[in-house]
Specification:
The complex is a heterotrimer of chains A (214), B (245) and C (468). Chain A is α/β, with parallel strands linked by helices. Chain A has 5 helices and 11 strands, in the order H-H-H-E-H-E-E-E-E-E-E-H-E-E-E-E. The longest helix of chain C has 23 residues. Classes of the chains: A alpha/beta (214), B alpha/beta (245), C alpha/beta (468).
Chain lengths: 214, 245, 468
């Protein structure tokens, strides 16, 4: 017998005959577990939690403002004004803001990566990004600076809400769903938290659609 | 109310004063106290060492001895936990006794828990003057929820000045046979406890389990601390400055 | 990985005397124990979430085959290849075959405790493959040729000076003791490895039956790099890691980082499903998932079944006063602390890890902090019972316990012997009323005094007072 058959036989033997016959039904219903209370102002909570996890958060009225916000952010930190963005954001006037931005997947030495976000999760201040042809996963990963543009109206309360939206809008999961909560970090050396491990050293979240305090 | 006092084997052998202190507290609460003469051990050493047979035999002996009592009270969180939590687990597949074991378990209490939550004692008979710090013994704390009860009782004594130590809920390292099998780990844990006790500057360390007290006392004395008194909570509550004969 | 659990006592004693290690272990207390307490306090419905989490894990374990088959079906539909491995040797063989099949030379690896179970790195290296650990901690251990001492913080036993020395020697760069600079140095040294690797190997914190996905939580981003850049991704995990749905995994995610490191969520949570799409510019072209049994299915239907709920957060060891004082290496295999003391005997044999189930005071803190409510002390006690049943305990211990229980069942004899013992011990203890040495219990008296009995037993005194 194959390893598969042996393992399944051992499990099957230990399991009672009727136990778990509803497993497919459980999956079809995918019931939610207990949800923590989160308050009403989701965008505010999202911004606060993201800040707590060391993301920088900037609210703005429209998508058109994003290139200038990014340019200012990089200049203030004396970071190179160049990098890559998702093809879905290629239409913005990066050049007009003095930025040299290519629309493609990231290489190892791109200083800045600019992405959108499928949604933001208020509970933990987390970005949810889906991989795809127009939304390559490397852009949020390889550069030392990650800028994510989130639409305020798309911020949801919990990861459960995000799954429901994903099922509704996409039907199935993309190759990679990446939840991002601040710059990469490590505490492996003497349990001392250090920002910037293998991923970005800093994350700027631009919330489009007005102040997140409103 | 007929209360069976199970003094525990360790108290019987090592420090009978704790048994008399418990007796005095129960009488002060108006209980009719019976002390079954044939009582020995609850079976915990065997149970925790993997000898279920020995543990069961002793459990059945306890069951019989305390048959006529409305309550069974022990001046030890770990022995009370043995009866309350572990007896039912030990006999879960034994339909002939499980019901009577469950009834025994339900009416068994650690001493301070019983005094506060069952008889609701308002005044304690002892007198004490001085500073002390309290160690929360593991089984009492985590199996029976004994934490506020001893402090409530100590707070009834105007002369008691309780200073909490850091990590009062961390194990002192006793663990029954663990203290002998892994002596150096056990002693290190006791040493950490002694450090926290010393840091409070309290004149006495108080706890509800004699095993922990012997471990802590043993390490304190070996460290050269001959001053800090090591007292069972019943001795403080019932005695004259911790002395109960 | 080689098992050295039989040397537990000796290693533990050495570690107690290792001052550098003792200092390193203190950090665990402040960062992980205090961090968890804060993170739990911030989750208002923690108790409810914990109950739900334990129930989710139990539900899966009760019908593990059904959820595994569903996972296999969904993962396969998305282009992943699912492999089943009975033993660690099977895993090593399967990974080597996959590497061969895809013409792999260089492998990057993110942290996987299951791969430590397998001793995978050594096995692959003997096949001529280059394997680079990329989690900072695991990378340091690979340079130092050491096993991890903690499942979440693998180099908790090393100081930054140790790591500076190691980096200076291996990287041939100017020495630095700044932690941030050490981290940057590792990033710069490892980045070319990521960019040139043919294969990435990861573990899986969970696999999701509903979607056939592998879920990985990391903070450093190395897990994302490992599973995004190389053209082949192999995820290795235990068969018990399956959960039914995305909602279930979300409930568990509310507890895992909080219990592990005191974080509300880890920096990255990656849910990986299938292979790169035709029009996509990144992501692996081949995705393999290896499901390892290695003794797990044998726990089903036994007293140890609740152990399969474990989500490997490490809270039990962080809060274990024994682990806090001796560190992880003494436990002698992949998994240290209370969970390791259950898993090691279960996976490598009770007779090869005799001390582990006994190396606990049963203080119960591990069960209090376990996010999936595993009754760890009960499981350890059960292993002790098995040791007795299989006659694996030393005869002196068996005789002593038998004698004790035999006496305790004979009240008259018991009363007589305790009366004599109390009297004699009192006399021999001298004016100090305590012993500095007591034969038979030197484990106690080596570093502690033994208080002497008061001299008369309670029963004696009670009878005397109440007969008059």
């Amino acid at each position: 017998m194959s390893a598969r058959e042996n393992i399944l036989a051992r499990i099957g033997k230990a399991r009672g005959p009727g136990v778990g016959v509803d497993s497919d039904d459980v999956i079809r219903r995918h019931p939610r577990g207990p949800i923590p209370p989160l308050g009403n102002n989701l965008a505010k909570r999202f911004g606060e939690q993201a800040t707590r996890l060391a993301s920088d958060v900037a609210p703005t009225a429209t998508l058109m403002d994003v290139p200038k916000i990014v340019a200012d952010y990089l200049r203030e930190r004396q970071l190179p004004p160049k990098g890559v963005c998702w093809p879905s954001l290629a239409a913005l006037d990066w050049q007009g803001a003095g930025l040299e931005i290519e629309s493609r997947a990231a290489h190892g030495d791109d200083p800045v990566g600019i992405t959108g976000a499928f949604t933001g999760i208020a509970e933990t201040g987390t970005l949810m990004l889906l991989s795809g042809a127009q939304t390559p996963a490397t852009v949020s990963l390889l550069p030392e600076t990650h800028v994510a543009v989130v639409e305020k109206v798309r911020i949801v309360a919990t990861m459960e809400d995000a799954w429901d939206r994903l099922r509704r809008e996409h039907g199935k999961l993309p190759r990679a769903v990446n939840f991002i909560s601040g710059p990469s970090r490590t505490a492996d050396i003497e349990q001392t938290v250090t920002l910037g491990a293998h991923g970005p050293y800093r994350v700027l979240i631009v919330i489009v659609g007005g102040s997140w305090n409103e | 109310m007929r209360v069976g006092l199970f003094v525990t084997c360790l108290v019987d052998l090592m420090r009978p004063g704790i048994g008399f202190a418990a007796l005095r507290l129960l009488e002060a609460a108006g209980c009719e106290v019976v002390v079954p003469a044939a009582q020995t051990c609850c079976g915990q050493p065997g149970y925790n060492s993997g000898d279920q047979k020995a543990a069961k035999a002793l459990a059945l002996k306890v069951l019989k001895e305390f048959d006529g009592c409305d309550y069974v009270v022990l001046p030890s969180g770990s022995c009370a936990g043995m009866i309350r939590v572990h007896y039912p687990a030990l006999f879960k597949d034994d339909p002939s006794v499980i019901e009577s074991i469950k009834r025994l378990s339900a009416r068994t209490y650690e001493l301070t828990d019983f005094l506060v939550n069952v008889v609701k004692l308002q005044n304690v008979p002892g007198r004490y003057s001085g500073s002390l710090t309290y160690h929360d013994s593991c089984s009492g704390l985590r199996e029976l929820g004994v934490q506020a009860q001893p402090r409530t009782l100590l707070a009834m004594m105007p002369g008691v000045n309780l200073t909490e130590m850091r990590e009062s809920t961390t194990c002192c390292g006793f663990g029954g046979t663990f203290s002998v099998k892994f002596g150096d780990i056990s002693a290190r844990m006791a040493d950490n406890k002694c450090e926290h006790i010393r840091a409070t500057g309290a004149g006495a360390i108080v706890a509800g389990d004699l095993g922990c007290l012997m471990n802590i006392e043993g390490r304190l004395r070996r460290r050269g601390d001959l001053e800090t008194r090591v007292l069972h909570v019943a001795e403080v509550l019932a005695g004259e400055n911790g002395l109960c004969k | 990985m080689q098992v050295t659990a039989m040397h537990f006592k000796r290693k533990a004693s050495e570690n107690l005397r290792n001052e550098k290690l003792q200092k390193a272990l203190e950090k665990l207390q402040t960062k992980f124990v205090d961090g968890r307490a804060v993170a739990i306090a911030e989750l208002p419905n923690f108790g409810e979430v914990r109950d739900a989490a334990a129930e989710i894990r139990d539900k899966v374990i009760r019908s593990l085959d059904r959820y595994l088959l569903r996972f296999e079906q969904e993962a396969t539909a998305r282009g992943a290849v699912v492999h089943w491995a009975e033993t660690t040797e099977d895993v090593n063989r399967i990974v080597a075959e996959i590497a061969h099949q895809h013409g792999v030379h260089r492998i990057v690896k993110s942290k996987s405790m299951v791969s430590e179970e397998c001793g995978l790195n050594d096995a692959l290296e003997t096949q001529g493959l280059e394997v680079i650990e990329t989690d900072l901690g695991e990378y340091i251990l690979q340079l130092a040729h050491e096993p991890p001492s903690h499942i979440v913080a693998p180099v908790v036993h090393k100081s930054k000076e140790d790591i500076s020395d190691l980096f200076e020697e291996k990287h041939q760069r100017p020495r630095t003791v700044q932690i941030a600079e050490l981290c940057r140095e590792a990033r710069e040294v490892l980045r070319p490895g990521f960019l040139s690797a043919d294969m990435g190997i990861s573990g899986a914190n969970f696999i999701v039956a509903e979607t056939g996905s592998v879920l990985i939580v990391t903070n450093e981003g190395n897990g994302r790099l490992t599973t995004t850049l190389p053209r082949v991704h192999v995820a290795i995990t235990g068969i018990e890691k399956v959960v039914p749905t995305l909602e279930d995994v979300t409930t568990l995610l509310r507890l895992l980082p909080r219990s592990a490191t005191g974080q509300s969520i880890t920096n990255y949570v990656s849910v990986l499903t299938g292979t790169r799409g035709k029009d996509e510019s990144d992501g692996p072209e081949h995705f393999h998932v290896i499901l390892l049994d290695n003794g797990r299915s044998k726990l089903l239907g036994t007293e140890l079944q609740p152990m399969l709920r474990c989500i490997r957060c490490g809270a039990c060891m962080n809060h274990c006063p024994v682990y806090q004082n001796i560190g992880g290496h003494a436990y002698g295999w992949v998994y240290p602390g209370p969970m390791g003391s259950v898993l090691t005997p279960s996976f490598v044999g009770l007779e090869n890890a005799l001390d582990l189930p006994n190396a606990s005071t049963f203080c119960g803190e591990c069960a209090v902090v376990c996010p999936v409510k595993i009754p760890l002390p009960d499981l350890l006690r059960h292993l002790r019972t098995r040791q007795v049943q299989q006659h694996l305990r030393p005869w002196q211990e068996r005789v002593a316990l038998r004698l004790w229980s035999w006496m305790a069942r004979r009240p008259a004899l018991y009363a007589l012997s305790t009366r004599i013992a109390a009297r004699l011990l009192r006399i021999f203890s001298g004016s100090e009323k305590r012993f500095h040495y007591l034969p038979g219990v030197t484990g106690w008296t080596d570093e502690r005094d033994m208080p002497a009995p008061a001299g008369r037993t309670f029963r004696d005194l009670y009878r005397e007072r109440h007969s008059s």
